[in-house]
Amino acid sequence: MSEAPHEIAAGFMPLLDSALVVAAHEKGFAEAEGVALKLVRETSWANIRDRLAVGHFQVAHVLAPMPIACNLGLTPLAARSVVPMALGLGGNAVTVSNALWQAMAGHGAVPDLGPRAAGEALRAVVRERGRQGLPPLRFAVVHPHSGHNYDLRYWLAACGIDPDRAVEIVILPPPLMADALGSGVVDGYCVGEPWNTAAVMLGTGRIATVKAKIWRSSPEKVLAADARWAEAAPEALAALLRALYRAAEWCADPANGQELAAILSAPAYVGRPAEWLMPALTGHLAIGPDAAMEVEDFFVPQARGATFPWKSHALWFYSQMARWGQVLHTPANAALARETYRPDLYRAALKPLGVALPGANAKVEGALTRPTAVGSAGASLILGPDGFFDGSLFDPDDLDAYIAAQGAAEAV
To answer: What transmembrane ranges does the database entry give (predicted)?
Structure first.
């Protein structure tokens, strides 16, 4: 460790996918890189966003679209942020109440986490409720500029459900979702772990589908850095990225799963039982009281370029902001979104480690149907599969056409 360590304050939310930042601190990877990492547990994404903006944090575990929204001026206290690293792939799920699942099962839903069958069954339920004059179903997400919101909306729309007219979508902090489901305040939600497993363990809901099946190998949380700090302290940022990469390798080793769950379960971090965390770490999900499934890529901390900040990921999130009326699509706005994700910072920090570094900054999302070797510097790199469940493709070089072709589903 250097004599004068880099002091870095990092905000995080109590979620399983804070694993990389927690492990970097708890397992000594930050210290080994000369980083004195101070972790601050927060209660809402808005708090993290605002504290990053005012300089309380240099970096934070954040929703993957949030730094883009900040750079586009869509949030209060917007401050310029950069994303030099992703914090893994997947980790979200859509959970519904027992009553809603029973209604969906009556229209053909089966406990296999398949997005298409579950979505079509949900559409039938929405139609039936409309005919009966019942109020729209209410779903919760954690933030308007979240992967959860865009995952849920993409799934609903692709299954013929207009997210803005056929259902209601509200905002709730993750720790409140299982209780809201149990009390009937919401009928379903899209959230990260362990709050889907919590509903199953508490007997209040069932997991209907997962992010890993809606859009495979897609990002959920990223490391956001205050752009001013990143520019002023490049050595500190690079040291932190190396520590996080080492933490990702440790988190990805199945032999460390029990220890990681125990660390995360502590009150300072997620503060929930380790048995609530193990399903996501092992991929063995209890999806209901009478059903379980293996989901190999439910949460991927390190393989498949899981920590690489792809510009195509940034642009897909931007396309959804445009689709749902959060931002006007212009060349300038697209450029702001594209430049938020910084693979150049990732490569510069990790090149000395000899790790796999993609040769490209972007890729056609949804094009890989099987694990595929791609051009890389350092070690060899296998990507994919990365498909959308509806078979669509997102070519970041054809952004205008993709946005123009999108639209909400017809109201049902």
So the answer is: none
- Residue ranges of alpha helices (H) inside 133-273 are 147-158, 177-183, 195-202, 211-214, 227-232, 234-252, 257-264
Parallel, antiparallel, or unpaired: how do β-strands 81-86 and 221-226 relate?
Answer: antiparallel
* Start-to-end CA span in the chain (Å): 60
pLDDT in tens, 194-210: 999 999 999 999 999 99
Taking a C-beta distance cutoff of 8 angstroms, is the pair 142, 193 a contact? Answer: no
| Cross-strand bridge partners of residue 365 | 394
Q: Are 386 and 367 in contact (CB under 8 A)?
A: yes
Strands (E) in 212-343, as ranges, are 221-226, 284-288, 291-294, 299-300
CA–chain centroid gap for 409, Å, is: 24
Residue whose structure tokens are 């890989």:
368
Q: Where does the pLDDT of residue 2 fall: very low under 50, low under 70, confident under 90, or very high at 90 and above?
A: very low
Read off the amino acid at residue 91: G
Q: 6-90+218-266+301-346 architecture in CATH?
A: 3-Layer(aba) Sandwich (3.40)
Q: Is 42 helix (H, G, I), strand (E, B) or coil?
A: coil
pLDDT tens-digit readout, 390-405: 999 999 999 999 999 9
